[in-house]
Amino acid sequence: MDKTVNQKAWFLVLPVFLVVAFSAVLPLMTVVNYSMQDTFGNNQFFWNGVGWFKELLDPSTDLGGRFLASLGRNLFFSLVILAIEVPLGIVVALSMPREGWTVAACLVILALPLLIPWNVVGTIWQIFGRPDIGLLGYALNAAGIDYNYVSNDIDAWVTVIVMDVWHWTSLVALLCYAGLKSIPEAYYQAAQIDGASRWAVFKAIQLPKMNRVLLIAVLLRFMDSFMIYTEPFVVTGGGPGNSTTFVSIELVKIALGQFDLGKAAALSLVYNLIILIVCWIFYTVMTNAGAERKPQEGAV
Amino acid sequence: MHSIPGRRLIMGLFLIFLLLPIYWLVNMSFKTNSEIVSTMTLWPHTPTLQHYKRIFTDESWYSGYINSLEYVVLNTIISISVALPAAYAFSRYRFLGDKHLFFWLLSNRMAPAAVYALPFFNLYSAIGLFDTPWAVALAHCIFNVPLAVWILEGFVSGVPREIDETAFLDGYSFPRFFIKILVPLIASGIGVAAFFCFMFSWVELLLARTLTSVSAKPIAAIMTRTVSASGMDWGLLAAAGVLTIIPGALVIWFVRNYIARGFALGRV
Q1: For residue B128, is it left (φ>0), alpha (ψ between -120 and 50) or beta?
Q2: Using one digit for the tens of pLDDT, what is the confidence trace for A147-206?
Q3: B152 touches chain A (CB under 8 A)
């Protein structure tokens, strides 16, 4: 792109800069400050250096144990939902009707879960999954499967995962659908003349064309699932025990539950750093993919 | 578009999977509490509007919706108005640190709300905005402003640069060009960006709950509180849930082709 260099553009960006700096940099400075100190209430603070960070990364301490356990749970959760949502999203995108009013109808229904407040997503699954009043829980128990997400670890995990699949698979599907739509009809005609099988068409035409949107989908889903809070909090409250306590839930427990400012701040910084690294990968991938795409921009 | 075998069946099953839990919520909201607890019925046998009536007449309930709408609308207005000029700048010019700034914005969109909950609480308490719609509106800017910038940048880049140049040759000043020419040209983009700001602010609970206590409490927080206090009033909870879905469901039709774009920060 032949953008002109103009430093005055900073004036146009300034409002955004100020608003985001006010709500991002200022609070983050407080966090850095807290992470180096210990407090015994009454606003008395004591210098603690890197003590919290040491404790955080040492699994034998209480803080470190809780952090690393929740981190492990969270990574496992993210991997499981990626392994389910990405293939399922592709299949759903490939199953979209070709034309007519059904396309719009499918799009609307697919988008519906994405626009429901996160706590209501939790409420929906709470109501749907309970063995006494929920359709799902009642049906499973009636079929002879002992299912109770309140008391059983595995049931709680299954519920949280199915809930996330319900909530977010549509996003993967909609992104893939956008990628599929950009494939010119001529490609398919060429494949037909060559006598390519459906699988070959998928592998040679559709998958490569979906590459970019799939990357975006994977990274978005990873990042959002890595900071998931509201939905599992409403459904399981992090339990039974600590079995569905993810990093954000642990952090809020420490920060707002126990008001352990130093510990919470140290955890926040490490957490943020992980997100930042993933984010950087995301940005690099997107800008590189954008550069490759430029010549055929009109097609999208 | 060439699809796979059995696509109707797959699509049908998936849509049922999506709709069934929502149906159950709606179903529940029309049942009396005794029907919910005592029997398993697939549709309300004694349909009632008592839960909706309660929400619309009890101030502690309907004020939650008003509070939520207040900060959501405030946030949308702030986000769009600061993001518009920035989107133009990112789309048209190169300047010192532009790429870093763009990345920094993205990283804020991705920052976990849990990290900011406590510092926000301190910050807004210190400046006296705690428990006002402004606190939540400003806090939600952290993810909505970057989102708006990214989406609008895509739309501004779709406007040919010749239009700017012609306008300036015709003697338009920059603000006049911006309001009279650019804004109408990207009106649909502004609509899409506004929709997503509205939506992301509407669905967020953690920050909204942390930054309010009484007078600005959002509906989402009222829902969690009442569940624990009143001994599980399932019907009321379901009705409140149904009402929170309505704003999204109302506008979904108009933005159906932009959903993927909005969630992918305008990059699709």
Answers
A1: left
A2: 888 888 888 999 999 999 999 999 999 989 988 888 888 888 898 898 888 888 888 888
A3: no
Which amino acid, A15?
Answer: P
The reply to whether residue A275 touches residue B107, judged by beta carbons under 8 angstroms, is: yes
Separation CA B37–CA B28 (nearest Å) = 10
**Where do runs of H (alpha helix) occur along chain A?**
9-20, 26-35, 51-56, 62-94, 101-111, 118-129, 135-142, 153-181, 185-193, 198-201, 207-226, 230-235, 247-252, 261-293
CA–CA gap between residue A265 and residue A31 (Å, rounded): 5
B252 chain-A contacts, CB cut-off 8 A: 108, 111-112, 115
From A60's Cα to the closest Cα of chain B, the distance in A is 24
> What does the alpha-carbon distance between residue B265 and residue B268 come to, in Å, rounded to a whole number?
8
Give the amino acid at A47: W
Assigned token pair, B254: 């108009």
ipTM of the complex in this document: 0.84
Q: B43 vs chain A: nearest CA distance in angstroms? A: 11
Predicted TM-score of the model (pTM): 0.85
Beta-bridge partners for A39: A45
B14, B177, B209, B252: best to mutate for the A interface, most A CBs within 10 A: B14
> Phi first, then psi: what are they for A242, rounded to 5°?
-120, 15
Class of domain B57-263: mainly alpha
A28: chain B residues, CB-CB within 8 Å: 119
Domain ranges of chain B: 1-46, 57-263
H/E stretch holding A6 reads: none
**How far is residue A173's CA from residue B263's CA, in Å, rounded to a whole number?**
12
